[in-house]
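This part of the workshop introduces the protein records we will be handling. Backbone structure tokens are a discrete shorthand for how the chain folds in space. Once this layout is familiar, the rest of the handout is easier to follow. The record below serves as our worked example for the rest of this section.
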Amino acid sequence: MKRLLPFLLAVLLLGSCALLKSGEPSDEDVSTDPDEPVLTKQNIELTVWVEPGAGEGFIKQAAAAFNQKYPNIAIRVTGVESSEVLRRVRTASAQGGCADLFVLPHMELRSLADDLFILPARDQTKVKNTVFPACAQAAAVNGVLYGYPVSSETTALIYNKRLIQERDIPSTWEELIAFSKGFNDGERAGFVMPVGSAHHNAPFLTAWSNRPFGPTGDDPRAPNFSSLPAFEGMEVFQNLKSIVSLSVEELTVEAAERLFASGKAAMCIAGSWNVSRFSGVDFGVVPLPAFEPDNECLSMIFARVMTVSAYSPWPDEASAFADFLLTEEMQALQAELTGDLPSVEMTIRLPAYAAGFNRQMQNAFAAPSLPEAAGYWTLFNAAAARIWEGGNVQAEMSAASHAFFAAEEEGEEEQE
């Protein structure tokens, strides 16, 4: 009941806004599409806060396109750093100075939803059916979508087309190890990857349907470090050391990607946010190798979500603009301007490398947004580093699990 209360209050707030607007004269409202809410005909201005940079440029162009569709709805876009957005939302909302919409990393949604600063997505089913499942998971708090995931990031397997053709790319980790043993010659490696980064190591933790904090990522009592799937996945991770004879210190994100960019590795696990580092390489992108032919390897995603302020006087109009950002035309424009991955499955006007990431997005899960996640990944990174250097998989993962629960108990005692 405690978790349900914030949602019920948010629904009541949204409903009260709708009731206030329903009392306006009928000639003040217009519906141009039966699938959209009735939007005002009054001349209004919506304010959007978005992080400065390419993302801001995209939102400005999207705002202009939305204004062409709804000439009476102007949209003012202001560049505000993400950390500053959180502060402003909490301090300005009560005084009426909050933007109608703002963009945030999905990990920041939970606290704002719990404290009733943001509204649930207007059409939950439509958003869920439009975006990748992992993106919908990213925007959800206790099963309710609190925003519109407009972009995403994830990892996949990058390959050098001059060193290996796509038809020869291993489809499983076992095949990748076998390929690399035949390819390695002391100067070049078949495969490298960062081994001290949770972004890149998480796929091994989530083998065989294992998930941090349970299937939906919101159970703080289910870290799932110490489980048979986690043990088996991390054993696959450890076996990669047989083909990548470098230490954790030698396989940072920058170092591993530098080896690939210099032509010293045929394949590498890399994030979509770093592909610009490979501009001098004729590269392609494919999904991560599977653990077994019918057991795909899942990557972890991070999404940026457009959210509607609970204090906006125009929640339907704000929601309509957020929903507009999920159209294929806007998603393609975003990919073109920012290089971010779309949150919807599509192929039009995308950079050539994006197709591989899109395929990986079909097998992905959202990075957990629970407060406990920060300490969780610190423990996992440390355990993964020791496992890479030869530590016993079960012992290290069990120790991480014990440390996680010990930290949680200590935190609960301090609160009391």
